[in-house]
Backbone:
């Protein structure tokens, strides 16, 4: 018999919304230039991220985030984020600048898991990070036109990943336009507690509606991290009470934002497994929902 959950466990998300202005960050044509972010914008974004991480660290071990989420196309130097992950012992999920090889280009993101993350006494910095990369399957119209201007070919990354963080639940991922990939969410349904969307997206209202829809159909927490240039970052949970569903929703442009938001884990898993009797904390499960309780 499976042991019942006796307490509520929350995943603390450090959501960082730096200002990334796509109109100035990248060159406009391929006339002797690579499709890479310029140094001024790189340093500006890094300063914003450092400031947010310093704020998180000042909160103390009990209040700092477990996982820090950053937008799409956010960093140029992976070692910059790796150093922050090792120093803080927080997991980082971040978009990377365009990855170029020959005439091919990918839009990728990377997850950094510090070696001491799971240790109870993790006040000392980690010696190394476990890392994995996931990529974007569908490019936006703007990306496709930009690649054409630079004489590049966009390479799709069709693989779908789930990170099993054990006590914090299972996490799925998507990069911006892949938020419209319904097949991805058919795979994620019955399998995850959290979905992270890394975005550089102008149409923030559409993403807000998508977050509500996907949260309800996949039945999970949805975290959207967008550039502060457009705003629209959010955290949504399929709670029964309407006022509880948005634990964070940002509106307004050119706003640097860093927040720590707690999202449910144990109570959501228990509900997904249909182990709850009496008063419900969450909306009804979608038709055909059957949680797959497996170990990787």
Residues:
């Amino acid at each position: 018999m499976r042991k019942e959950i006796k307490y509520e466990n929350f995943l603390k998300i450090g959501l960082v919304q730096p200002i990334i202005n796509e109109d100035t960050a990248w060159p406009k044509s391929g006339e002797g230039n690579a499709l890479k972010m310029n140094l001024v914008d790189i340093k500006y974004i890094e300063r914003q991220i450092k400031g947010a991480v310093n704020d998180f660290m000042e909160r103390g071990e009990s209040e700092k985030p477990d996982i820090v989420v950053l937008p799409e196309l956010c960093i140029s130097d992976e070692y910059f984020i790796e150093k922050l992950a090792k120093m803080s012992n927080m997991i980082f999920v971040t978009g990377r600048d365009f990855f170029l090889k020959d005439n091919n280009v990918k839009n990728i993101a990377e997850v950094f898991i510090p070696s001491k993350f799971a240790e109870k006494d993790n006040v000392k910095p980690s010696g190394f990070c476990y890392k994995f990369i996931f990529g974007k399957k569908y490019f936006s119209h703007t990306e496709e036109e930009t690649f054409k201007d630079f004489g590049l070919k966009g390479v799709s990354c069709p693989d779908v990943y789930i990170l099993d963080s054990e006590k914090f639940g299972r996490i799925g991922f998507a990069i911006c336009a892949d938020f419209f990939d319904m097949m991805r969410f058919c795979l994620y349904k019955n399998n995850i507690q959290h979905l992270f969307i890394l975005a550089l997206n102008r149409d923030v209202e559409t993403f807000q509606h998508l977050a509500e829809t996907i949260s309800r159909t996949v039945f999970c927490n949805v975290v959207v991290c967008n550039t502060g240039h457009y705003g629209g970052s959010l955290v949504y949970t399929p709670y029964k009470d309407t006022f509880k569903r948005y634990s964070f929703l940002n509106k307004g442009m050119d706003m640097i934002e860093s927040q720590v938001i707690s999202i449910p884990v144990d109570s959501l898993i228990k509900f997904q497994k249909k182990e709850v009797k009496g008063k419900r904390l969450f909306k009804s499960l979608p038709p055909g929902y059957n949680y797959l309780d497996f170990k990787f």
